[in-house]
C-alpha cells in the first residue's frame, strides 16, 4: 500500500562557494521540493543559502567557521534526530563523512552521496586519513553513490560496490537559463570584437594556463581578428594567472572578472566558451552553454564526451593550447559554429529528468511507492 506522505529528505552540503556542484545541487533541490519534504543543512551561509531561501526551501546553517568538526557532528546528530528523515543525501568529502556518521548515530535513515567529479589532487598527510574515512563511510554507512557521468561511475567502481553506483546525469531548466538575459558590459563596450571565455574555478584542474596560452596563439596567428579573452571565476591560481597574462604580453586583451552574478548573460554574449580541464564530471557550464547556443570547446573527458558526441569538432582529444586555437579558428572563421553548434539538450540533461531519477532512486532505496 502506498504511503501518501512525501519522503522527508535532508541534503547536507558545504555551500562555501557558488560553483558547478552547488549550481547542480540547487537545481536538483528545487525539483525535489515538488515531490519531497526537503530540508537542507549547509556548512556556510553564502550564495547557495540565499538562493535556496529565495526559492522557499527549508534551510539551516551549521557554520563551519564557528565550529570544529566534532561540534558540527554533534549538531548534525541533534538535527537529524529531530527531523527523522527517510533519506540523508550528502555532497563532497567532509559532508559525506560527518553526514553519514551523524545519520548512523541520530536517524538511521537511508544515506547516499553524489560524487560531482574525480579528486582534484593527490592526498598527503592528514588528507589521506580523510580520504580513507570518506571511502569507509561510502562503503559501509551509505547505500548508494550517484555519479554524474558513466566515466566517473566506472572510476568509482574501484572504490565502492558496483551495485551501489548509479549514473544520473546533471540537468538544467533551459527556460530558466534563457530567462532574464541582459547584455553584459564587455559586449556593450566591444560589440564587434570576438569574445572567448573560460568559466569556472581558477584552479589547477581547470587548466586556465592552457586557456591563456591558447589566447597568445590566437593573437599571434590571427592578428586581423579583434580578440577579447575573459576569465570568469575565482580560485587559488588567480594571482598566478594574472601574472602569466602579463608575462605573455596579452594582459591588454584578457579580463579577469572574478565571480559574476550575471554569468549566464556572459555565456550568452560570448562567441565561444573553452573548457580545457584535465577531468570533469558533467559541468553545469557546459549544459548552460548548449542551452544558450554558445559554441563550447572542451577537453574530451567525462560526461562532456557524451554531451557533445554528435559535435566532434568541439571535443579536443589532445589537451594542448594549439589544438584549441586550431579548433576555434577553423570553426568560428568558417562560420561552421552557426550551423553546427548544439542548440538543444536531450531530455536526459533536463532538470526535470534529473529530479525524477533521483526521486525514483530514493523510493527504490526506501522501498516506498512513489
UniProtKB/TrEMBL annotation:
Keywords: Transferase. It comes from the Bacteria. GO terms for molecular function: glycosyltransferase activity. The keyword Zinc-finger does not apply. The keyword Transferase applies. Residues 20-175 form the Glycosyltransferase subfamily 4-like N-terminal domain. Residues 192-335 form the Glycosyl transferase family domain. GO terms for biological process: carbohydrate derivative metabolic process. This is Glycosyltransferase. It comes from Exilibacterium tricleocarpae.
